[in-house]
UniProtKB/TrEMBL annotation:
Designated name of the protein: Nucleotide-binding universal stress protein, UspA family
Domain UspA: 4-146
InterPro entries linked: Rossmann-like_a/b/a_fold, Universal_stress_UspA, UspA
Superkingdom in the source lineage: Archaea
Phylogenetic lineage: Archaea, Methanobacteriati, Methanobacteriota, Stenosarchaea group, Halobacteria
Length: 154
């Protein structure tokens, strides 16, 4: 199975591990000349909370998710890293339930591999709060590389 497209699914918590995520993706993308899709899914509530901070005036009903994703950290930093390395990349945004949207995004871009980061949680925390990363891994239409920054134990 050839790897032509890699979806790097990121969220706001990934700013602390952006370098590690980029390195992980580059290990795959560079030798295979694969395209990287930097994907950021966000909820309506999340958008409303950060739209003023990002200088966006549109209400959630009128927003272009791709344009919002481009402004949301760590997407810009990742795009810059891939640009510096000469790796083809694009940015995709999505609005809705984060887990479902990331899985749909993987299908939409026909991802051959997905990379996502996560944080360490106890079994009790997972039971009470759920785990978006775990949901994505279980529903993903392609193999997933899970990146956990061992220096960041949240």
């Amino acid at each position: 199975m050839a790897i032509d497209t890699i979806l790097l699914a990121v969220g706001p918590m990934d700013t602390v591990r952006a370098d590690g995520l980029a390195e992980t993706v580059l290990e795959i993308a560079e030798p295979l000349d694969a395209t990287v899709v930097i994907g950021h899914a966000f909820t309506k509530r999340e958008y409303e909370e950060f739209r003023d901070e990002l200088g966006l005036e549109e209400r959630v009903e009128n927003v272009d998710p791709d344009a919002v994703a481009e402004k949301r950290p760590p997407v810009g930093d990742l795009a810059e890293m891939f640009e510096e390395e000469g790796v083809d990349h694009e940015v995709r945004g999505s609005l809705g339930d984060v887990g479902d949207e990331v899985v749909d995004m993987a299908r939409d871009v026909d991802a051959d591999r997905m990379v996502l980061g996560g944080r360490r949680r106890s079994p009790a925390e997972k039971a009470v709060l759920g785990s978006v990363s775990q949901d994505i891994i279980l529903q993903a239409p392609c193999p997933v590389t899970y990146y956990r920054d061992l220096d960041v134990m949240e």
